[in-house]
Design a protein that fits this description.
Helix content is about 70%, strand content about 0%. The longest helix has about 55 residues. Helix 2 packs across helix 3 and helix 2 packs parallel to helix 4. It folds into two domains: about 55 residues; about 110 residues, no CATH class. The protein is an all-alpha fold. It contains five helices and no strands.
Length: about 180
């Protein structure tokens, strides 16, 4: 008969019954260990699945943060330069080799250039493409803003906007008198 407190090894017995009991105990022990390992592996799989879901969320958050960042100084300068070029094109303003305005464009430049630039930026802000300041433009709208600027035409047309500003100027002059 087997003593339950004493573990029998295959070397201690040659009785087939005892060997079968020993094999059954080993199989039972292995089965319990496999069950524990299976639980551990399942827990690890669940943890990995949770981590993957968190990584997907984190990547989406990072993308969102990148999109919400403002343009850098180079892009802000590109926006400014694009607006200046577009307004100069609309007003037919030509610059000499030193960057100064040619004499035949001086009137339009002094009377309309800055006002047209301002109007363009107001229209871009109203379209949701530009921030309250050029450098506060969201990075995600940069290319759409450049496209908007390159295609921009005042709602009233060039001559209509000039007439509007001339009317405002006349009203100010009359008010001062």
């Amino acid at each position: 008969m087997m003593n339950p407190d004493h573990e029998i090894t295959p070397h201690e017995t040659s009785d087939p019954m005892e060997l079968m009991q020993l094999a059954a105990m080993n199989i039972n022990g292995l089965s319990q260990q496999m069950g524990l390992m299976n639980k551990a592996v399942t827990a690890i799989k669940d943890d990995v699945s949770d981590l993957r879901a968190q990584m997907v969320d984190a990547k989406a958050d990072i993308r969102g943060l990148k999109d919400d960042q403002f343009v850098d100084l180079i892009k802000a300068d590109n926006i400014r330069k694009s607006a200046q070029d577009r307004v100069a094109e609309l007003l037919d303003i030509e610059f000499d080799e030193r960057g100064g305005v040619t004499d035949d464009c001086r009137y339009d430049y002094t009377h309309y250039y800055a006002k047209f630039i301002g109007r363009l930026h107001v229209d871009a802000r109203n379209a949701g493409l530009e921030g309250p300041r050029i450098y506060a433009t969201p990075r995600k709208t940069y290319q759409a803003l450049i496209d908007f600027i390159n295609d921009w035409v005042p709602l009233r047309g060039v001559e209509g906007l000039k007439s509007y500003y001339d009317g405002l100027s006349e009203a100010r002059k009359r008010k001062k008198r």
